[in-house]
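Dear U.,

For the methods section draft, I wanted the exact inputs and outputs in one place so we can describe them consistently. I've listed the two proteins in the order they'll appear in the manuscript figures. Please don't edit the token lines directly; just add comments below if something needs changing.

First protein:
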Amino acid sequence: MMKFAPLMAGGLGLLLLALTVMPATAAKPVTERFVIEEIVDLDCGDYTLREDRVLDVLVLLFFDGEGELTDIQLHVHGTVVRTNLDSGASSVEHPAVSVFVDMVEETETTVGAVFNVVIQGEGIVIQDTGRVVFSFTEGLIFEAGHQEALHNPDLLCAHLR
């Protein structure tokens, strides 16, 4: 939920709607597919970084026999173009990530290519790929793969400075 907070906010209304109309005997997951198209300006101190996002999102909500939400799955694919509004420098990435939220164990597992930022002529400049597990109460509890931005969130601003 940390890296996909804007994405989660965009689908929050759909999630809340599904929770209010879910019968107690549901066995099949509730699924919803939507596209997020948004432009977000990030304050990078001495310049503004604009993110132009187009993300295809599939959400699956799983409930137990009592109608309680037990698991959430998010599958996200898309394109994010970042542009330094002062210099015009830009990068592109194509996230392909799945997020599994276990409401019972209170964990969130992210698998895939969260960040794979490419600058033309330079190649990949930021890469977070692999598996990361967060506990709702303890924070980061497991990681595997290559995780640059996870440990240095300032990289998103620094790469187009």
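Second protein (the one for the lower panel):
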Amino acid sequence: MTSLYLLQIVLTSMGAVTLTILLVYGITIILKNTMPKKIPKKLPYYAEIPFGGDLFYTYAISEFYGPNPRGTEDFLEALLLKWIKEEKCIVDSQNLNPRESVILFTETEDFRKEPEKELYRILKQAIPNNKVTIADYQRIILKNMVKLKPTLKQIKLRELNKMKKTEIVAKEAKLNMFDRLPEKYYTFEYEEEINKLLGFKKYLIDYSIVGFRGSVDNESLMDYLTFAQLLGIETVMTRELSNINPLILKEKYDKSVGVNHNS
């Protein structure tokens, strides 16, 4: 009886230890795959917008390497800025507070990528009267995330397949359950792409709007703004960018109502 009791205690203790080890291991894996990675201090700046300005490729490679906690929301907010620049969305009314400016989703069908067209359709369908403020747009994203996720997953897989074909990643590469690319699939070319991305993010953080204002036109500033939003940059200087520069909004609004700044 005593021996059986001792055996039961030993087995119970082993079970508790095993459970603790598994729990710690699980938490470690989750943190490793969900926490953003820091930018190396010695990484050189990359001043040009990377990857030919391809927002979808940049989103995918950023998520594969080390997503920021709001990666998907930042991507969808960056898409809105892209659509404003391309006039798929129109600044319908301008407000002193950029976040309260009203954006009109047009009836456009002019999209080169089918997933982008689908994201636009889902979001437009969720917006009453096709009009939304920046602040409300952020809430609509969260409310419709379940509908958006399949298309977002499709974007990631499509971009991963492109990377395989061009041998940016190993041909057998596949994403883990967190949609991250395990390091065993990295190539030299992939690490070069990552260095471009991180070097550009470092450049945006350190120079921000102070470096861009007055040195580039509003269209180029809109591109930097869009990528700053995509990369989740939240420094004091770039906060103005991520909320949409009021001057850019005003120019877009004036154009929509027929104001000619050149006359």
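Candidate sentences for the figure legend, describing the second protein: Residues 22-31 have pLDDT under 50 and may be disordered. Residues 35-256 form one domain.

Thanks,
Y.
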